[in-house]
Design goal:
- Pfam families: Flg_bb_rod (PF00460), Flg_bbr_C (PF06429), LlgE_F_G_D1 (PF22692).
- There is one protein chain.
- The chain has 276 residues and is of the alpha+beta class.
- It has two helices and 22 strands.
- The radius of gyration is 27 Å and the shape is elongated.
- The chain starts with a helix and ends in a 6-residue tail after the last helix.
Length: 276
């Protein structure tokens, strides 16, 4: 095998994966509460190249030629959990969280999809998207009609005829009394040596919903609730476009390497040693 071909091929596959992640980020630049995703790259383990069957130098003894690296492989994906900027909407039932935590949603899938085989299946999911609304019956729901959960895990119901005030604790106040509390939920996090904090026990569902795994441990959230605001995605479109250009150039470089090696193989196979 020509190692250069394989090395360039693995580089192209890796850059294609990075491009998929970047385009998904750009597609969700305007999705409320969306968290930027990224991809890491890992080198295959270095291998010691050996020179064998060289009878001019210690017959039948392998001699090291040096270290080679056979290419790159796709590493782990990660999520950037840093807060996105907040946009003021003036709508009382638009809520944003300041700090770590999530809103709880009683999500019901509306149709069969790639992750749910049965329509109508209900799961408790978590999101940073606080774009909520109040039904005519006074129930707080998402824009898709899924119930927003209170701190005790129940549905949130208020009197639609009375004014509503929501403080930073998530308490919903009507006529001077607390009638419900918007649920704030959090999970144990992992802190890396570089200071980066992440959730290893949350899985994506859609673009801004998360499902805890069986290993997830729920903890008390200290986040503040801001009524009349929505958290935007934490994506910088300019940065993503710059990264996309770099990925495209890396892909083109690997492609040119394959073309160059193919040309040398053609000369070796079809021109060298030809009798004129």
């Amino acid at each position: 095998m020509v190692k250069g071909l394989y090395t360039a091929y693995t580089g192209m596959i890796n850059e294609q994966h990075r491009m998929d992640v970047l385009t998904n980020n750009l597609a969700n630049a305007n999705t409320n509460g969306y968290k930027k995703e990224g991809a890491t790259s890992q080198a295959f383990s270095d291998q010691l190249a050996l020179k064998i069957k060289d009878y001019t130098d210690a017959p039948f003894t392998a001699r090291g030629l040096g270290i080679i690296n056979p290419g790159v492989k796709i590493g782990e994906g990660y999520v950037d959990w840093s807060e996105g900027p907040m946009k003021e909407t003036g709508n009382t039932f638009d809520l944003a969280l300041g700090g770590y935590g999530f809103f709880g949603i009683e999500y019901t899938n509306k149709a069969v999809n790639i992750e749910r085989d049965v329509a109508g299946q209900t799961d408790i999911m978590y999101t940073r998207d606080g774009n909520f609304t109040l039904t005519n019956e006074g129930v707080l729901v998402t824009q898709d009609g899924d119930f927003v959960l209170s701190q005790d895990g129940g549905h949130i119901e208020v009197d639609p005829a009375l004014p509503v005030e929501i403080n930073t604790l998530g308490e919903i106040i009507q006529d001077g009394e607390v009638v419900a509390t918007v649920g704030k939920f959090d999970f144990e996090k992992v802190t890396y040596p570089d200071g980066r904090i992440t959730y290893n026990t949350l899985e994506h569902y859609g673009e801004n919903m998360y499902i805890p795994t069986d290993d997830a441990t729920q903890i008390t959230s200290t986040a503040s609730v801001y009524a009349g605001f929505l958290e935007q995605s934490n994506i910088s479109v300019v940065d993503e476009m710059v990264n996309m250009i770099a990925v495209q150039r890396n892909y083109d470089t690997n492609q040119r390497m394959i073309t160059t090696i193919d040309g040398t193989l053609d000369i070796a196979a079809n021109q060298l040693g030809r009798l004129s």
